[in-house]
Amino acid sequence: MEIGIGHYLILAGLLFSIGFVGVLRRKNLLMLFFATEVMLNAVNVAFTAIGNYYGDLSGQMFAFFVIAVAASEVAVGLGLLIVLYKKYGSLDLETISSMKG
Amino acid sequence: MSHILSALVFFPALAGILGFVVDKKSAKAYGIAVAAVEFLLSIWLWISFDGSNAGMQFTEYVPIIAQFGISYNLGVDGISLFIVIMATMITLLGIILLREDTPNMKNMIVSLLFLEMTMVGVFVSLDAIVFYLFWELSLVPMLYIIGAWGGPTRVYAAVKFFLYTFAGSLIMLVGLLAMAYLYNLEAGVWSFNILDWYKLQLTADQQFWLFLAFFAGFAIKVPMFPFHTWLPHAHGQAPTIGSVILAAVLLKMGTYGFVRFSLPILPDASVDFTPFIMVLSLIMVVYTAMVAFAQKDMKQVIAYSSVSHMGIIMIGVFAMNAEGLGGSIFLMLSHGIVSGALFMLVGVIYERRGTKLMSEFGGLAATMPIYATVFGVMLMASVGLPLTIGFVGEFLVLLGFYKVSVIGTIIAGSTIIIGSIYMLALFKKSFFGPVTNEKNFGLKDLDARELTALLPLVAIVVWLGVYPKPVLEPIDNSVKKLLVQMEEHAQFPSTKDAIIISKKEAE
Amino acid sequence: MESLVYVALFAPFVGSMFAGLFFGNAPRNAITGWVASTLLFVSFLASVALAVHVVHHGSVHVTMMDWISAGDLSIPFGFLVDEVSVTMMVVVTLVSTVVHIYSTGYMDHDKSYNRFFSYLSAFVFSMLILVMSDNFAGLFIGWEGVGVCSWLLVGFWYHKADRPFEENPSISPSWAANEAFIMNRVADLGMLVGIFLIYWNIGSLQYDVVFAAMPNLADGILVAIAIALFIGAMGKSAQFPLHTWLTDAMEGPTPVSALIHAATMVTAGVFLVIRANPLFSLEAVSGVSLFIAALGTFVAFYAASMALIARDIKRIVALSTLSQLGYMFAAAGLGAYWIALFHLAAHAFFKALLFLGAGNVMHAMDDELDIFKMGGLKKAMMGSYIYMGIASVALAGLPIFAGFYSKDAIIETAFNEGTYIIWGILVITAGMTAFYSFRQVFFSFHGEKRYEALGFHPHDMYKYVLVAMAPLAILAISFGWFMDDFKAFITKNLPAYEMSHHTHHWAWLLGLIVVIIAVAGIVIAYKKYAGKGANAWKRDEEFEASFIYKLLENQYYVPKFYDEFLVKPYTIASEKFWAIDKAVVDGSVDLIAKAFYKSGDVSRGMQNGNLSSYLNWMGAGALLLVVAAALATAIG
Q: Taking CB atoms and an 8 Å limit, are B417 and C185 in contact across chains?
């Protein structure tokens, strides 16, 4: 069985869904970060697969962009998380929510 | 002087800005001085006005955004001239009537002067955008006057007044923009000039929707039934000066809008909508007059009676003949003067007793004879007694509307009955009978300040009741021109039939 | 002659303004009364001079200035002095002059003396506008003007408190004034509609143009105009069912009742019908005219029946006024316009005299109105007794006196027209009239001195006032003698109604019947009420408890009916409408505002500060968008 574009997209879809559910369900900020990373990478998979399918390099190029942006985001984000942890002693969303409408 | 209109519009505003640096104690004197100059300017306008010329006069034209045809475009004709004069006069008299111990007098004066700018601006603008700007700006000082100097629930009343009328005006704005867009489609250039729009031919469908859009803005302002409920709240809470200007001038913006926009731009739709307007107006006349009868508070009686009389003005506007339309313009003036004076009078007694409830009074005619007399004159003008200003307009409106609907005229004519019922009931409860409340003994009669504000109005009530010609003639000329324009502009034969310029022609 | 017209018209106006100068809390100033009276006398002289002029040179027509002109409508202030209006002018100014002089005595002690004269002269001015105007709009000015003056004068003693209906059927002066004004306004609406009809069908409101154009109009329109104008006339002349205000208007000072509610204003309706005789005598509106005659006859009888048992001296006179107005309408409706006008003038003289006499009695009795409490006043008030006697004889229609000629002519007209029912009722009413007017005279001036027990000390009016009343008394006696001259004069303008040969033949018998019935009425009244000692009148409790008595005493329950079925429902409906206005109309606006507010309040829960729930909302939103997009694609 040859692995085709369909398989890649299913994989990307599954990964994205896992990440999506993670974003919605997890209560720990760190875990939320992981979940978003999973979603980003699901998109990366899709990008590269579709790029390959069309024989167009821009797909893979975009994946690199995403990786770079994600990396910098994680760098900033983790820094913020550490500050938050220092301040609240927890990364649980329930405990650190302070704005109420 | 070719820029007299600009001077009229912006003088009070500039003076208002300067007013911030005026000494607190002389604020009222300053206000009177500015309003007097403004009033004299408007009188000068009348003197230099050519009564036989039915078209726009003293026009000024400065393009603002040429690409979109938005321009600073002013002009007056017989229809707007007298409303402007009335606005400046009522402002002057209102400021004279202000008590010396009004809190924050300086702010009050500045608000009033800004209000005066917007009022004059609305009536002299010939560009839809400039008109709209003044229209909306007029809300701000009024909001402030009600909200800052009003009664106990002033904030509710002010917000209601603002939001209600604002919501209507936004729909009107959409209509104005659509109008310009349609003009662009037709003519290929943008124009917000009302006089250009008069020439635009629109389909029945377009007219229908545009009429509704304009209706939203104007009807709430008038205020027509069932959009009238902001008015009793606003009047109930507003200080005397606020009520006077609101009733005398701001409401007229609505009916003026119908005359300036709906009728000439959308003649076919106006004729088609006449039954609809008639039904609403008749309900307004009878229903609010009955509600007025049920009121316990003097000021609310006058407020509801205002709505009732605006109903008569509305049917006059849609009578589609020179008698009815001319009569309704005249009635706008007379209603402005009479209801303005009545609100002033209620304010006078409120200052003395701190209450407006009729049950608190009784027998005032004995303790305050001059006050009772002035009130009586205004009452008689309000119920449309011949030889007072109230009769001329009411008579012409009913006469004109007779051509549209006989039954409608009889129902509307019942205003002379139910109008006298609530006014006479008010007069009896407050002024007749024995003096039962001790607090009413020894009330001071009108003093010099109050007489200065009220006697000119009494004089006008009698003067224009006996000899309305100087005012009625320019109005009549412009109204005839407007009707001719409407008829030329109208597309359907049925519309042309409905518009009667001169009876000889109709035969 | 023009200047005379203006003198006649504006002299009362100047008098009113002059008296108005002393307004407010200014103390009583005798000058106001005398200036106003003098100016009215001037007006009277001018009217007489104009009458002489009209006799010799025909009518005078002046146009002062434009009033309203808009569209095709053009209304001037124009005044027409012709036979009809000059007759009215002379009558109005003569009665007014007498009443003014009378008032200087009658109102002597009133603290609002100056105000009174200001109003009274203003009334005369309005009345003169009404009769002199040359167009319907000008007529309407006067029409409303007299209405307002009547309002001011009926409510002159505004400081009196309301009393329940059972105690005082007219509640209070201010209540009666409002009732009169509002009820008249109902009729005025009819009149306005008539004016609109005339304008849109003829294009002018000038009498001459309108009446010239009348014959060319469609029958339906003519009938509509006639009905509308007559509705207007019904209000001012207090015809059924708009009659209740007239008896209540007796709350006003007695000179006012004499001038406005007997001699002048209430005859305005009759004047209108006479003025519009070219319309009402058209074949097309004969139905309306017959209705006017029938209604007039009905009112004549109806009012007379109530007067039979009334106890209030002023109410009796007011009801007799109502009854006589009915006679006038009967004549006008039957086409005998000049007879109606003749009766109008004669009635003005003797009825004003009667009222002023009644005023003297009230003055003497400290404003007591109940005739049951009077009696035997003859000695104390000889002058008033003679005047009241003359007026009552004239009213009863005994030969030689004015009422005989005019009333007999009306009754004869009914016979002549073959309307025998009307004739019969009018004859019976003539008998009733004689009975109730003498009942009142005998009650107050003859019999036992019932007032003594109640502690009254009656005294007659000032001498000069009694002298001033003399012209009315003379005319009440002699006016009828000039019937033929009057006819010759007035028929230049009005249709010369002639009795047929047949009627002429029987005229003596018809007159005799009326006189016999009238004398019978007087004799019965004398027997019942004039006796002394053993024959003295006693209250008949049994009769007072009977249904008929109750019916008459309560004015056929008409005021009650109005109260129950018009006033109360209107008040309740107003209250209900107000409640609806607050709850429904305003409520729905507030509901919109509240809906926005509420939706904000509810959706505020989303902003709980929890990132996780935000992300949930974001996800739901995204999903919703996807679904919406998918649906949109699917639907196409």
A: yes
Judged by CB atoms closer than 8 Å, whether chains meet at C619 and A97 is answered as no
User: Which residues are C312's β-sheet partners?
Assistant: C370
Residues of chain A with pLDDT under 70: 99-101
Taking CB atoms and an 8 Å cutoff, what residues of chain C touch A93?
A: 610-612
Nearest CA in chain C to B400: C196
B507 band by pLDDT with thresholds 50, 70 and 90: very low
Contact across the interface for C67 and B434, Cβ inside 8 Å: no
> If you average pLDDT over residues B308-329, what whole number do you get?
92
* CA B159 to the chain's CA centroid: 21
> In B, which residues are within 8 Å of C570 by CB distance?
290, 293, 421
- Rounded to whole angstroms, how far apart are CA atoms B223 and B290? 17
Residue with tokens 């990132």: C611
Hey, is the C-beta of C534 within 8 angstroms of any chain B C-beta? no
Report yes or no on B186 lying in a domain: no
Could C612 and A26 be called an inter-chain contact, meaning their C-beta atoms sit closer than 8 Å?
A: yes
The list of chain C residues with pLDDT below 50 reads none
Domain extent at residue A90? 5-96
Is there a domain that residue A30 lies in? yes
Cβ neighbours of B369 in C, within 8 Å:
23-25
Q: CATH number of the domain at A92, please.
A: 1.10.287.3510
Residue B54 is assigned to a structural domain of this protein: no
Determine the Cα–Cα distance for residues C236 and C243; give it in Å rounded to an integer: 9
**pLDDT attached to residue B294:** 92
- Cβ of C619 within 8 Å of Cβ of A23? The answer is yes
Number of structural domains in chain B:
1
The total number of structural domains in chain A stands at: 1
> Does a structural domain hold residue A75?
yes
3-state secondary structure C130-195: HHHECEHHHHHHHHHHHHHHHHHHHCCCCCCCCCCCCCCCCCCHHHHHHHHHHHHHHHHHHHHHHH
pLDDT value of position C151:
93
Q: Kind and range of the H or E element at B96?
A: helix B78-97
Residue C517 exposed, middle or buried by CB count within 10 Å (0-12, 13-18, 19+): buried
Domain membership of residue A54 (yes or no) is: yes
Confidence of residue B506 (pLDDT cuts 50, 70, 90): very low
Mean pLDDT, to the nearest integer, of B83-88? 94
Residue of B nearest to C72 (CA): B502
Element (H, E) at B72: strand B70-76
Prediction ipTM score: 0.91
Q: What percent of chain B has pLDDT over 90?
A: 70
Kindly state whether residue B488 falls inside one of the protein's structural domains: yes
Task: Tell me how far apart the alpha carbons of residues C9 and C32 are, in angstroms, rounded to a whole number.
Answer: 19
The answer to the question of residue B345 being in a domain is yes
- CA Rg value for chain A: 17
- Average pLDDT in chain B: 90
Size of interface B-C (CB pairs under 8 A): 162
Most A CBs within 10 A among C611, C617, C626, hence the mutation to make, goes to C611
Is the separation of the CB atoms in C442 and C316 below 8 Å? Answer: no
Largest CA distance in chain B: 73
Q: What is the pLDDT of residue B502?
A: 59
B430 vs A91, B117, B347, C584, CA distance in Å?
73, 37, 14, 30
Which residue numbers of A have CB closer than 8 Å to C's CBs? 20, 23-24, 26-27, 29, 32, 93-94, 97-101
**Assigned domain for A91 exists:** yes
Each residue of C234-264: b (16+ CB within 10 Å) or e? bbbbbbbebbbbbbbbbbbbbbbbbbbbbbb
Q: What was the pLDDT predicted at C539?
A: 77
Tell me whether residue C415 is exposed, middle or buried, using C-beta atoms within 10 angstroms of its C-beta: 0 to 12, 13 to 18, 19 or more: buried
